[in-house]
Amino acid sequence: MQKFFYMNNITFSIIKPNAVKSKFAGKIIDEILQADFEIIALKKTRFTKEQALTFYGIHSDKPFFDSLIEFITSGPVYVLVLRKDKAIEKFRNFIGHTDPAKVEHDKIRYKYGKDITMNAIHGSDSDENAKLEASYFFSEFERV
């Protein structure tokens, strides 16, 4: 069986509730594909409060934690596993700075984000986190 994770080639992303509600998910997915990322897993889902607390637990001591949990559980999301050479670095550059007000106009977060919390999209920050985050939503079998 082929190993799924190849260091530097896989990243995980979430199209967040504000982008889904605003009907931007299709546009974002199209831009991801146009940027030559291969989608190897994709599903529409919704965070339960328990899942959100686990997924974002690393931020539990931050002042924005409660509003983050409220936001991410407020509606459906799309979760994606993407493949490309140097995927994490290239995807984070592709989506732009966390705060849409501080990002170049051609970046996903500028085009579709509202503010630092409702910034439309999440991208993993390391190989380890990409693997961990993807495992919350996809079995090894689902990642083809």
Spell out the blueprint of helices and strands:
Blueprint: E1 10-15, H1 17-21, H2 25-34, E2 38-45, H3 49-55, H4 65-72, E3 77-83, H5 87-95, H6 108-112, E4 121-123, H7 127-137
Which terms summarize this structure?
alpha+beta; 144 residues; disordered N terminus; single chain; 4-stranded antiparallel beta sheet; 4 strands; 7 helices
Description:
This protein is 38% helix and 17% strand. The protein is α+β, with helices and mostly antiparallel strands. It has a four-stranded antiparallel sheet, sandwiched between helices.
Short description, anyone?
This protein is an alpha+beta fold. It has helices at 17-21, 25-34, 49-55, 65-72, 87-95, 108-112, 127-137; strands spanning 10-15, 38-45, 77-83, 121-123.
In quaternary terms, these chains amount to: single chain
What class do helices, strands and sheet pairing give? Answer: alpha+beta
Radius of gyration: 14 Å
CA distance, first residue to last residue: 11 Å
Strand content: 15-25%
Count of helices?
A: 7
Helix content: 25-40%
Number of separate strands: 4
* Overall average pLDDT: 92
Largest sheet: 4 strands, antiparallel
Give the overall shape.
globular
**Uncertain segments:** 1-5
How are the strands of the biggest sheet laid out side by side?
2-3-1-4
Strand and helix order: EHHEHHEHHEH
